[in-house]
Amino acid sequence: MNEASINLAVDNTPFEDQKSIYEIQTESILTLLKKAGLSTKDVDGIATNGVERFSSVGMAEYLGINPKWSESSFLGGSSYLTFVKRAIEAVEMGYCNVAIVSYGSNQRSAKTRKIGGVIEDHTPQKYFEYSQGILSPLSLYALVAQRAFHEWDVNSEDLAEIAVSARKYSLLNEKAFNYGKNELTVDDVLNSGIISSPLHKLDCCLVTDGGGAVLITNDKIAKSLGLPKIKVKGFGQLDTHISYSQMPNYLITGAEQSSKNALSQSKMLLDDIDIFQVYDSFTITVLSTLASIGMDQPKNIIEKFKTGHYSLNGQQPINTSGGGLSYCHPGMLGLLLVIEAVKQLSGELDNRQVENASTALVHGTGGVFSTHATMILERIG
Amino acid sequence: MYLWEEWFNLVKKGVFTLQTCKDCSVQQFYPRSFCVECNEDNLELEKIDGVGKIYSYTEIFRSPNPEKFTTPYIVGLVELNDKIKIICQLDLDTDDVSIDKEVKFKEVNNEGVIIFQ
Question: What interface predicted TM-score (ipTM) does this complex get?
């Protein structure tokens, strides 16, 4: 069996122009391949979704390639962690040698995002939940936040700290949507207007265009191209529900089990992890996910946001790009979380580089806390 | 008729039901074509009292469909028993809503919204 690794990652945040999904993806893929010393002719595996009904085939056709391996499962925000893991397996099994995992969305410029959400008529979610006037996913995360206020003794000021932290990081990232803006204060968040109580506008992620691409090859090719090798040391997944009424636990989510499995496979502990990239669709997503992963008690997590523990110079830097809250949220953030981790571990960043970062935990959340994937990455060369 | 339509037709008439398995006695929501617990299909929609308590709630200030839903309104996640929760709207004033408050099924309105109060 071959050994495979993640070798390179690029993000693409075309906030100025209106481009199609195919163009956004192609831009990232060509940048990635050029950087690696490859061309589209070398690519024999592709994973993507959200392009069209035949997503991987449609994107492959646009690129002019005939993939031997492809993947287009739809798991929302956690899809791309799963894709990266499956691409590693495909290269290790020899189904393909050079795989690209790519994502792109033009939801902001094409105005395809609806505050009520998008749902097929024949589903239980449509019958029993969308029919009741929810904003999806916003109201469903708001219900978790309200319950967290009750059980965890946290409040809106506490959640606002998470948005404040995200904005700080994004001011160091010139590709971020909020780059060049001011720092946020807790009051800014509280004064941004409640959309679905207790969540305010600034508790919610951005709605932007954007995407990126990741290269996965076998270690022989990586060596010949002189590329870094980032190994997936552990992976865990758990899908718990899609209808909100079926969610097994509203505060401690599937992230508990997926992260436990990923850490156990990697033979690492949370203390061994240098940086964390966790899905931040809303401020509450971060609090619930960090609590579910077992980082600390919820009240202590908030305290650590306040005291800089999770900041760039803190002990456990979290969401160093600025995340979905302040950098870029193109509908599904999963791949951008992986990309930021790969960039950090490759040591290629300047003013937001975490020094000597060699291990990362990445957590993807899809749907309404529905799908969970945790990945432990380590740079080995 | 689809199972879900049958459930909705009953609830529109004021009859609040949960699907109950005649073999293992487990109740389930939403209705399905089999029992998730024992996998048999000996199921009936049984009337319940429609009393529950508020597990969580959210007041909505931007409407997903202004013709159908006029803001502000309160969506609730109501706990009917240990295992079953339902999304509905709460006919309560903002100041009267709190977690754990007991609420009861009132009606289904013309827009198909399930209302508890």
Answer: 0.97
B78 and B102, same domain (yes or no): yes
Of B55, B60, B85, the CB nearest to A133: B60
What pLDDT digit, counting tens, does each position of A201-215 carry? 999 999 999 999 999
Q: Which architecture does CATH list for A4-110+207-379?
A: 3-Layer(aba) Sandwich (3.40)
Residue range A129-175, pLDDT digits in tens: 999 999 999 999 999 999 999 999 999 999 999 999 999 999 999 99
CB contact under 8 A, B112 and A146: no
Please answer yes or no on whether B64 and A147 come within 8 Å at the CB atom.
no
Global model pTM greater than 0.95: yes
> Which residues in chain B are closer than 8 Å to A143, comparing Cβ atoms?
56-58, 75, 77
Domain containing B65: what range?
51-116
B36 and B85, same structural domain?
A: no
Of chain B residues 51-110, which have a CB less than 8 A from chain A? 55-65, 68-69, 73, 75, 77, 84-89, 99
Phi, psi for A359 (deg, rounded to 5)? -130, 150
Cα B21–B25–B29 angle (5° rounding)?
55
Contacts of A199 in chain B (CB under 8 A): 58
Report whether pLDDT(A1) > 80: no
Distance, in Å, from the CA atom of A158 to the CA atom of A305, rounded to the nearest integer, reads: 9
Query: What is the maximum span of chain B, computed from C-alpha positions, in angstroms?
Result: 45
Q: Are B59 and B93 in contact (CB under 8 A)?
A: no
**Residue B51, min C-alpha distance to chain A (Å):** 17
What's the pLDDT at B1?
Answer: 66
What's the rounded Cα separation, in Å, for the pair A96 and A70? Answer: 9
Helix axes A156-170, A298-306, angle to 10 degrees: 40
For A53-72, letters b (16+ CB in 10 Å) and e give eebbbbbbebbebebebbbb
- Is residue A128 scored above 80 in pLDDT? yes
- Residue A66 structure tokens: 């005939």
Strand order in the sheet with A371-379: A69-71, A45-47, A98-105, A210-218, A4-12, A230-239, A371-379, A359-366, A275-278
Who contacts B13 (Cβ-Cβ below 8 Å, separation ≥6)?
A: none
